[in-house]
């Protein structure tokens, strides 16, 4: 499972057939773009391909390339199942394994192979008929039986190899495949399918297995563990319903005893090494979970019929002890500061005024919107949701609090970056959840945006704040009179060549541009507030001609400045193009220029900002003169009429 930053660079606008088929098992060499994928079908038993993403080439490196169409499994030289296991050594990624009825090993990425085991199955000839039956053979390998179905090497001790077969045997080798011992658990009935053998990440002799017997009318879950290389086994399926057979079990590599299991109905978690289990299905549909992986603190589930699901930060959160009777703020995972390809502009009538980053798809995806901008994502009807691009914050509340819940992000030195509140119900800021039990909030790693323009304007652009720099930050959760804090890291995208100084220069200029845009919007908001008050005084003046004349003159003077700050000639986005950009549009445009990529701003960007900032300041100075002189004079005239005075906003 590649990391998210790795995935964002694997597929740009193209999709590639890198091998295998719908039946493939895959193994990815870290940091190389090389993917091994198995498949069996079309009369080619045990096919394995090596795909090199840099070359866009796929090479057949099958352990034994042979046509098997129309043959019975008992006639094969080597029996390979439809989902033959493929694995890389955790100690040496140049060591590759693939299994049929025997285990194969390659040390040169499939250019040559050696057999490292005898037949590790029951090898019953009566169960090796032609796939599909004697009349219509399907040639897919789906019904090839008596094969190794699960294989793994211990991450603790090199050369400790585990194999489980689809006909119910478990073997272990402690000498790198030279000799094998049958360690099939006594608790595992004959002919069970061993779906997963998971070596312990903490002890060389430890392993877990998941097996199923539903094809034999036995739907019970079979989960077992050993700590002595299989000499003894303990059943550990307590808490999983009797009718939910299990296909996979995984051990967390950080917290000893934290286990995850995939069943025919969902996902389960154990905190006590399998002594008890509880459901972790949450919003996952009732679906068969065929595989699980733990990657960068996330739990990834591969389902049969409902695509891939990621429980963000689940493993990292569950590694931390929390008391269900008290408030607990979990330490957030480190977040990578990276950009994804493409932006989707969301219509304002759906509550979105910011672009939301989306991974580009080869074709448009149908979607509708839900959520609020900082947390919200488009919900795709025919494609997956994007992972949250930000810092994922998990916290537990024993009960729904009566008062406000506040979340504050601070820099390492204590300066406040952003504050969120459960009382904020606006569409501009994501509301902080405050439900009893588990809560999740995603900070998009951005500082506050520019001050909003009340009432909007033609040509108004997105005015998001700059992305936080890599470094250490602190998060504070305030609830029920108490404060809970954790630290976390924002990491630089490892692919970005820019230095810390480059990113700091980008951040500083982005802040300057944002602040200048805020000044523009604040000025327009003041103009509009004074105009409203002037109209109110005219109404209160009961037709006083002098008052109306002075009000119109003041509004005209304010309108002259407003027309330079924003586009007032029209109200539609097209009007901004027809009548030309004004200062707010020109300033906001530079925000996109500055933040277009993770690099220091160009010299010409500084120059362009200097010019537009100078023009802006002239208009702001002009406005200050109007407010300090002409508005005061208007106020004095109002006092003569014994009306409430108008004051600058």
Name the descriptors.
single chain, 649 residues, alpha+beta, five-stranded mixed β-sheet, four-stranded antiparallel β-sheet, 7 helices, 35 strands, 20% helix, elongated
* Percent of residues in β-strands: 25-35%
Morphology: elongated
Order of strands in the sheet with most strands: 25-35-34-31-32
Q: How many DSSP-defined strands?
A: 35
Q: Report the uncertain regions.
A: 4-15, 341-364, 368-376
Distance between the termini: 56 Å
Main sheet, how many strands, which sense, barrel?
A: 5 strands, mixed
Content-based structural category: alpha+beta
Helix fraction bin: 10-25%
The quaternary organization reads as: single chain
Cα radius of gyration in angstroms: 32 Å
Describe this structure in words.
By secondary structure, the protein is an alpha+beta fold. It has 7 helices and 35 strands. A 5-stranded mixed β-sheet has the order 25-35-34-31-32, with no helix packed on it. Strands 1-2-3-4 form a 4-stranded antiparallel β-sheet, with no helix packed on it. Helix 3 (500-540) packs parallel to helix 7 and helix 6 (583-594) runs antiparallel to helix 7 (603-640). It is elongated and about 110 Å long. Mean pLDDT is 86; it is low at 4-15, 341-364 and 368-376.
């Amino acid at each position: 499972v590649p990391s998210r930053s790795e995935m964002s660079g694997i597929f740009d606008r193209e999709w590639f057939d890198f091998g295998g088929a719908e039946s493939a098992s895959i193994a990815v060499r870290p940091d190389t773009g090389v993917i091994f994928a198995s498949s069996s079908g079309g009369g080619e038993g045990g096919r394995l391909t090596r795909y090199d993403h840099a070359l866009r080439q796929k090479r057949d490196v099958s352990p034994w390339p042979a046509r098997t169409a129309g043959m019975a499994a008992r006639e094969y030289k080597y029996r390979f199942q439809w989902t033959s296991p493929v694995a890389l050594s955790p100690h040496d990624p140049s060591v590759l394994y693939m299994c049929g009825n025997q285990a194969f090993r390659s040390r040169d990425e499939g250019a040559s192979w050696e057999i490292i085991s005898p037949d590790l199955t029951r090898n019953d000839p009566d169960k090796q008929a032609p796939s599909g039956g004697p009349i219509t053979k399907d040639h897919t390998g789906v019904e090839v039986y008596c094969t190794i179905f699960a294989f793994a090497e211990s991450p603790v001790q090199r050369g400790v190899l585990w194999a489980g077969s689809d006909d119910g045997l478990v073997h272990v080798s402690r000498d790198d495949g030279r000799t094998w011992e049958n360690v099939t658990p006594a608790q595992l009935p004959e002919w069970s399918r061993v779906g997963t053998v998971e070596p312990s990440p903490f002890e060389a002799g430890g392993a877990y297995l998941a097996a199923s017997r539903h094809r034999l009318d036995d739907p019970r879950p079979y989960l077992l563990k050993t700590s002595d290389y299989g000499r003894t086994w303990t059943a550990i399926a307590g808490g999983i319903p009797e009718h939910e057979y299990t296909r996979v079990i995984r051990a967390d590599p950080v917290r000893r005893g934290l286990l995850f299991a995939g069943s025919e109905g969902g996902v389960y978690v154990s905190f006590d090494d399998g002594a008890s289990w509880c459901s972790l299905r949450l919003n996952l549909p009732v679906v068969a979970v065929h595989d699980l992986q733990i990657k960068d603190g996330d739990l990834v589930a591969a389902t049969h019929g409902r695509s891939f699901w990621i429980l963000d930060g689940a493993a990292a959160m569950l590694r931390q002890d929390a008391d269900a009777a008290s408030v607990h703020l979990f330490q957030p995972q480190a977040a990578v500061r990276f950009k994804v390809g493409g932006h989707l502009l969301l219509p304002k009538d759906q509550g979105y005024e910011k672009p939301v980053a989306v991974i580009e798809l080869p074709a448009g995806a149908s979607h509708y919107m839900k959520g609020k901008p900082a947390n919200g994502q488009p919900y795709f009807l025919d494609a997956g949701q994007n992972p949250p691009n930000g810092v994922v914050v998990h916290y537990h509340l024993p009960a729904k609090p009566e008062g406000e819940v506040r979340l504050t992000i601070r820099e390492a030195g204590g300066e406040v970056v952003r504050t969120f509140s459960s009382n904020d119900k606006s569409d501009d800021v994501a509301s902080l959840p405050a439900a009893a039990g588990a809560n999740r909030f995603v900070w998009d790693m951005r500082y506050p945006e520019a001050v909003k323009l009340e009432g909007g304007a033609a040509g108004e652009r997105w005015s998001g704040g700059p992305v936080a720099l890599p470094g250490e930050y602190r998060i504070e959760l305030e609830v029920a009179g108490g404060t809970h804090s954790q630290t976390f890291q924002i990491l630089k995208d490892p692919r970005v060549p820019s230095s810390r100084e480059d990113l700091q220069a980008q951040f500083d200029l982005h802040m300057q541009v944002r602040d200048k845009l805020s000044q523009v919007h604040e000025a327009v908001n003041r103009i509009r507030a004074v105009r409203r008050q002037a109209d109110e005084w005219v109404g209160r003046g009961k037709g006083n001609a002098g008052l109306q004349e002075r009000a119109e003159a003041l509004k005209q003077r304010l309108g002259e400045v407003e027309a330079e700050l924003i586009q007032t000639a029209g109200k539609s986005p097209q009007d901004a193009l027809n009548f030309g950009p004004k200062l707010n549009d020109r300033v906001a445009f530079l925000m996109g220029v500055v933040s277009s990529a993770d690099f220091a701003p160009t010299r010409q960007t500084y120059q362009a900002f200097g010019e537009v900032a100078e023009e802006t300041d002239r208009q702001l100075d002009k406005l200050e003169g109007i407010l300090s002189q002409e508005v005061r004079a208007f106020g004095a005239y109002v006092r003569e009429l014994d009306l409430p005075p108008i004051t600058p906003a």
